[in-house]
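From the shared-data thread, chain only:
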Amino acid sequence: MKPDVYTSSRSPVPQAGLSRLMARSAGAADLKVGLLDGPVIVGHPGFSAARIVWFSEGDVAELSACDVAAVHATSTAGVLVAGRRSGALGICPGITLVTRSVFRTPAARSAGTTTWIELADALMELADAGARIVNMSLSLATGTSKEHRAVQDALDYVAAHGVLVVAAAGNEGAIDSTVVTRHRSVLPVVAYNLQGRPWRISNIGRSIGQRGIGVVADGLVSLGAHGMLRPFGGTSAAAAVVTGAVALVLSELPRTTPGELISAMKGVQTRRTSVIPPLMHAGCAFETLLASRSWQERWSPH
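Structure, as tokens:
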């Protein structure tokens, strides 16, 4: 029997306020969500009804793949677009997932580590492909100031295209910030445990606390290698949950801007000084945006 990923006390669905949103929508087919990760095992039976598109053969993996990059990307995609009876969350299986692998060599794919330049290129490609949201949870090699600048420029580019980047804060247990977590187009995500505290090895920091949100990701299950399920956690899983929530909101309210989404998802009106972000409640975020949109439409000049 597959685990009940929707009603269990360990599921992020009720804890993140996703229950009513998921009952309301599976996501809009014309909404493109970019997955900036490893190659996805698109032949996994959990994706049998999913809309997944890619740029090149290197963006997808064979069904027998079991390397770290492919399994991680497949688990992330499973949180988003797996069938809701697959055993994975499948928060927004109705959207179109655009997958772009940033592991262009066998060595990089095996290690699961990419470069800042590859990240910059992939961000711009996904923006050009029409993605409204990009999910990003990566381990990056040490970069130079020139490489960091390239990512800054790429983030400026996606921001100009109205793209929201949902980025995992990382699992190094550090108090830090990066060019990614500091950028206005990015919503950083921290993993919380069932006791309502940040996961002990989740990165935190000033920009993460001010701009980001947290999600309970303990005990999550998603798609894995060989057509099976696997445990999936940490900030990567938390970021995927947030991306799925944002995708459902955008499917219902497509005119919402990245700035409005970030503000609503945080649910905090005052400026935060903590290095720890607030927990997300997607249902409250949606109701806030819906009320705001209804008010604007009611009072806008005709």
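The longest strand covers residues 186-192.
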